[in-house]
């Protein structure tokens, strides 16, 4: 697939390029993505607040780890499940911390962050398409495309964090209502793709952005104290629970890939 109009299934994608560094877009893909972004929210809160590391220290530590795991990812010549999804989990944490630093440490408003990251993401896509002629995740098969891909992923997490916090906190909808709102928008995009001819690449990236605030809303709902509108399970239990789901799903994907090989 080499054009902007290339279409692929949001639920049952097909991998046709053996050199592609990105997994098929399947139900398992969206499950892990949702778990990863939810864990990114709760893990960032745990490191920053519960362990008392603070935003700056947590951000520097997680960014350093991410740089190392991305180097490992770029060294692979094909998609490797555990390497890829490890980077997704870590970049979800770093993307969350990026927005949190701008808001909490630098005093940048959530509205400004949302608009700014939207512009950065749009610029990334524009340059990516101008240089490579495609935004299809089925053709992330060279270092330049992969660099654009991970940069876009980082901005989607930062944007999703800002937009989610804007809706849940600034507009005071609360965690549950925000989750339902973002889930409804995602469902509408899926209907648009399957039945109304919405462009597949556009639908994919919009859903990718919106799963971040969706996951964060439900992560906060589970982890935050009851007094703050949550269910009080805490960041440790919530993070470990989602990590277990991710680990089991990635292990299953690894086994299936080896059988196919």
UniProtKB/TrEMBL annotation:
Pfam families: DUF347
The keyword Heme is annotated on this UniProt entry: no
Regions crossing the membrane: 51-73, 79-99, 106-128, 148-168, 180-210, 230-255
Taxonomic classification: Bacteria, Pseudomonadati, Pseudomonadota, Alphaproteobacteria, Rhodobacterales
Protein name as annotated: Uncharacterized membrane-anchored protein
Key words of the record: Membrane, Transmembrane, Transmembrane helix
Claim: Transmembrane is one of the keywords in the record: yes
InterPro entries: DUF347
């Amino acid at each position: 697939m080499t054009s902007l109009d290339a279409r692929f299934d949001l639920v049952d994608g097909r991998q046709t390029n053996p050199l592609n560094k990105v997994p098929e877009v399947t139900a398992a893909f969206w499950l892990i993505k949702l778990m990863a972004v939810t864990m990114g929210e709760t893990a960032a809160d745990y490191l920053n607040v519960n362990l008392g590391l603070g935003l700056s220290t947590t951000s520097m530590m997680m960014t350093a780890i991410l740089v190392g795991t991305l180097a490992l990812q770029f060294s692979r010549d094909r998609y490797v499940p555990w390497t890829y999804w490890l980077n997704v989990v870590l970049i979800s944490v770093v993307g969350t911390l990026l927005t949190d630093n701008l808001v909490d440490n630098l005093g940048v408003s959530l509205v400004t962050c949302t608009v700014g990251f939207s512009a950065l993401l749009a610029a990334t896509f524009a340059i990516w398409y101008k240089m490579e002629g495609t935004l299809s995740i089925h053709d992330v098969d060279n270092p330049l495309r992969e660099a654009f891909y991970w940069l876009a992923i980082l901005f989607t997490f930062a944007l999703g964090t800002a937009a989610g916090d804007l809706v849940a906190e600034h507009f005071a909808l609360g965690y549950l209502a925000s989750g339902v709102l973002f889930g409804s928008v995602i469902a509408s995009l899926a209907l648009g793709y399957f039945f109304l001819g919405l462009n597949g690449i556009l639908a994919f990236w919009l859903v990718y952005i919106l799963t971040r605030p969706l996951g964060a809303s439900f992560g906060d709902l589970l982890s935050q104290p009851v007094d703050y509108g949550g269910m009080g399970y805490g960041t440790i239990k919530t993070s470990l629970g989602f990590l277990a789901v991710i680990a089991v799903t990635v292990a299953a994907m690894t086994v299936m890939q080896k059988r196919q090989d």
